[in-house]
Amino acid sequence: MYYNAKYFKDKVFIKLKKYKISYILLIITLIGYFSCQREKKQSLSGNVSSASVSIKKTSTGFSMYRNGEPYFIKGVGGYTHLKELKDLGGNSIRVWDTSDADRILDQAQENGLTVMLGIWIGREKEGFNYFDNEAINKLKQQIKADVLQYRNHPALLVWCLGNELENGTANARAWKVINEIAVMVRELDPNHPITMAVNSINPRVIRIIKRDIPAVELLSFNIYAGLASLDEQLKEADWGGPYIISEYSSKGYWESASTSWKAPIEYNSSEKSAFIGNLYKKYIQNNPPNCLGSYAFYWGSKQECTPTWFSILDENGRKSAVADMLQNVWTGQWPANKAPAIVNISLTQQNNTPVKEISAGEIYFAHVNAKDFEGDSLTYKWEVLPESNWKELDGSVDKETKPMAVKNVLLQNQGATVKIKSPLKPGPYRLFVYVYDEKESFGTANIPFFVDGEKKNVNVISKAFVYVNNRK
User: Fold this and answer.
1) Number of neighbours of residue 7 by Cβ within 10 angstroms
2) Is 3 exposed, middle or buried (CB count within 10 Å of its CB: 0-12, 13-18, 19+)?
3) 100's torsion region: left (phi>0), alpha (psi -120 to 50) or beta?
4) Alpha helix (H) residue ranges in 319-472
5) 458: pLDDT strictly greater than 60
6) Distance from CA of residue 68 to its chain's centroid?
7) Cα 101 to Cα 158: distance, rounded to the nearest angstrom
8) What is the CATH number of the domain that holds 246?
């Protein structure tokens, strides 16, 4: 075959020139991409400016400012479902350590949220020794690395040193170390406030923190039913500085009424919603002079005493009535679909009389009265769990796991009513019900009961059931 050499040469040159331009464009694109990635990493490690957060004294108290604009925290504590939080009107999330900080900070930024980022500090009751210089130096180096890595992330709002460090801490050395850590964090990052979260509103504890940890000028309180007396306790402790409610919910299991065998009686989801709404409107929404906002507990599903006590969401991310209430107090609006309301739950004998004793292997009936505000059809899930080992953990609730459901006790499930054969093994249990609507919301309630293998009549049990069933 004949080839024109000049034609062939010109054709090849044109193609090479075309490909050369394509390669150049590809190289420019790749350079731009990696440059963006480098800038993103630099923004996390301290080379690019971030949002500046400050606390200023006003004529009436204290206010937080973010990029020069007033910022009041409407937050939750948790690690997941950040988009859903934003959709409800929330603006911040609290996490207790930096183990998953990259993901949380990035997702928070994507959803227009901020983060109270926890710096975990060992507690004496869990074995941390504040006289071990090697351990302390290692802790400080880890904290320094974390602060340098995240101090300029635009979603960072506040650093929180530890959690409930005052619990089980018995020596001044611990306070000295914590103050040294606070001084170091402030030097590394002067653009974000530093707080520490305590669960005590005892004036004596607050005065000790004020005296021995002066580098912490912003306190945070994990406080539940005690929120009603916080203002009084702060005045007695002479704490005139700013504060955050770093955890709040309905009554904690340590604050609630109990059965004769010391099982805390849990509010159903509708009661929790009403309790939290009242608490927020009275003690947070009216913007107390020194309060900078709050974090509801717990945004997700968490086993603590029970799998439902603090869980605002279930394990699949469905919303409870507490989530609805948070949207209402944050935005003034209810969601288009509200979670099913629990009216009451009951446990009766076969002739429909209230239970006065629970005997091993006998038949009982449980019923839940629930309603849906939008008229959706409801579905039900029941389960019996042994009482958890929360009493043995001495507050180390992160070690608690949900008990395995008891098998062969649900004999007949008729939706809102279930037929139960009580467990054969004597001991404390709880009967749980979960009520679901058609739009990813749920309600829940439970009844604690005690199986007596000797069929001993326990009148206090019936009182506990009456208390659960008749609360408004």
Assistant:
1) 9
2) exposed
3) alpha
4) 321-331, 459-470
5) no
6) 28
7) 13
8) 3.20.20.80
Q: Are 266 and 153 found together in one domain?
A: yes
The residues facing 75 across adjacent strands are 92, 295
Identify whether 324 is part of a domain: yes
**3 state SS of 138:** helix
Residue 43 counted as domain residue: no
16 has pLDDT over 60: no
Exposure pattern of 196-228 as b/e (b: 16+ CB <10 Å)? bbbbbbebebbebbbeebebbbbbbbbbbbbbe
The residue from 313, 331, 349 where one domain ends is 331
> What is the C-alpha R_g of the chain?
28
At residue 123, the 3 state secondary structure works out as coil
Average pLDDT over residues 219-244: 92
pLDDT of residue 42 exceeding 90, the answer is no
pLDDT above 90 for 452: no
Residue 341's SS3 state is: strand
pLDDT for residue 352: 80
Task: Give dist(CA 45, CA 152) in Å, integer.
Answer: 7
Average pLDDT over residues 387-410: 81
Mean pLDDT of the chain: 86
Question: 């009482």: which residue's tokens?
Answer: 387
The continuous run of DSSP H or E covering 222 comes out as strand 218-222
* 448 touches 263 (CB < 8 A): yes
Percentage above 70 pLDDT, the chain: 84
* Helical spans, DSSP H, in 257-320: 269-283
Count of other CB atoms within 10 angstroms of residue 161: 23
Q: Is the whole model's pTM more than 0.90, yes or no? A: no
What are 155-195's pLDDT values in tens digits? 999 999 999 998 877 788 999 999 999 999 999 999 999 99
* Joined tokens for residue 313: 């969401």
What CATH number did the domain enclosing 418 receive?
2.60.40.10
Name all contacts of 388-395 with Cβ < 8 Å and 24+ positions apart: 388/303, 388/305, 388/306, 390/253, 390/304, 390/305, 391/262, 394/125, 395/125, 395/164, 395/167, 395/168
Give the separation between CA 315 and CA 110, rounded to whole angstroms. Answer: 23
Tokens of 240: 């005139």
**367 domain residue, yes or no:** yes
